[in-house]
Amino acid sequence: MFLLNAWYVAAWSSEITAKPMGRTLLNEPVVFYRTSDDKVVALEDRCCHRGMPLSAGEVFGKNIRCEYHGMVFDGSGKCVEIPGQATIPERAKVRSFPVEVRDDLVWIWMGDPTLADPEKIVRYPWHSAWPYKSKTERIDCNYLLLSDNLLDQTHGAYVHKSTLASNVDAYERAEMKIDTTPNGVKFTRWMLNCIPPGIYAKAVKFRGRVDRWGEFEYVAPSCILQFTGARDVGEGAYENDARDGGFGLRIFYGITPETEHTSWFMWSTANSYRQNDPAATEELFEEIERAFKEDEDVLVAQYAMLRRVGDRPLINIASDGARMQARLALERMIAAERGIPRDQVVTLV
């Protein structure tokens, strides 16, 4: 079950051009294009005549033409031209979706369009405040496994040995504070007096051990905001919340279902240090990209096994606290939308 009445990240704004782009979201085929007056349009990717994908068509001004029989649709999904036919049937239209461009991201509303409130879109000012680089990936797993992975950072000691890991005992004694929100969860994780990860040490010169923090906020159904960093022990990052200087990294995650079994993963990295040095932004992105590939290998293998033996019970452990709260928030929202008890909500197939 997906939450329908919610804003999902559909793409980076830079991905949408005058050339139509097809993308499946929540099992729904959608075509995106940019009009001559720079507006982003999202329509059902299916011509209402013979079912041809409109993403194989061509954009003219504000409209898109189906390349099978030439029918033309405007940004509302209404057919405005049929070659050789003066009368256009009232039923000649396709579904349109509310879309908004915010902070270099394209957001789409997949549910009841009358409920689409742009004020509910998660804002992310760091795309204009810090230098950043972004990417869109398609991952072969259910979208909730991606958020599960990010909300339980204890995996870093084992999955990311060569990239993000500190000494293993630092994970075991980390201080964790979890706060629930109306539509998700926030947590802060401190790893004190630990060895800086290789990514951090390459970017910033530390004297020795560091105090390392990680702040994560999950906003249902599928958005996570991350702020992590480190400063030398004794510089007050933990004691005085003095986190300027040292290493700082912000990551935006848009995690949107393609189907029950596949996901779109749209993410960006932004650096607080050496902000006038493009090489610093590029190097950070490449290091995080390598770490995410480590995550992807795990998630694909995990999901393949869950699909084989998913009826067998799994256990929860102490580090699952934030993940469990995130899942509860999403299940409550789906239950309210569908008018069913929460225990009838199925979020993972």
Q: How much helical structure, as a percent, in the residues?
A: 10-25%
CATH architecture of the largest domain: Alpha-Beta Complex
| Strand/helix succession | EEEEEEEEEEHEHHHEEHEEEEHH
End-to-end C-alpha gap: 9 Å
Class from helix and strand fractions: alpha+beta
Describe the structure.
It is globular, with a radius of gyration of 22 Å. Helices cover 22% and strands 31% of the residues. The strands form 4 sheets. Strands 11-17-16-15-14-13-12 form a 7-stranded antiparallel sheet, covered by helices on one side. It has a 4-stranded antiparallel sheet with strand order 5-6-7-8, with no helix packed on it. It folds into 2 domains: 7-120, Rieske Iron-sulfur Protein (3-layer Sandwich), CATH 2.102.10.10; 126-344, Naphthalene 1,2-dioxygenase Alpha Subunit, Chain A, domain 1, CATH 3.90.380. The protein has 7 helices and 17 strands. The longest helix has 32 residues, at 278-309. Helix 2 packs antiparallel against helix 7 (321-338). It has 349 residues and is of the alpha+beta class. It has helices at 126-129, 143-151, 156-159, 168-172, 198-203, 278-309, 321-338; strands at residues 7-12, 21-25, 28-34, 40-44, 58-60, 63-65, 72-73, 79-81, 99-102, 105-109, 132-139, 175-181, 184-194, 210-219, 223-232, 247-257, 263-271. Strand 7 (72-73) and strand 8 form a beta hairpin. The model has no long low-confidence stretch (mean pLDDT 95).
Key words describing this protein structure:
single chain, Naphthalene 1,2-dioxygenase Alpha Subunit, Chain A, domain 1, 2 domains, 22% helix, Rieske Iron-sulfur Protein, 4-stranded antiparallel β-sheet, 17 strands, alpha+beta, 349 residues, globular
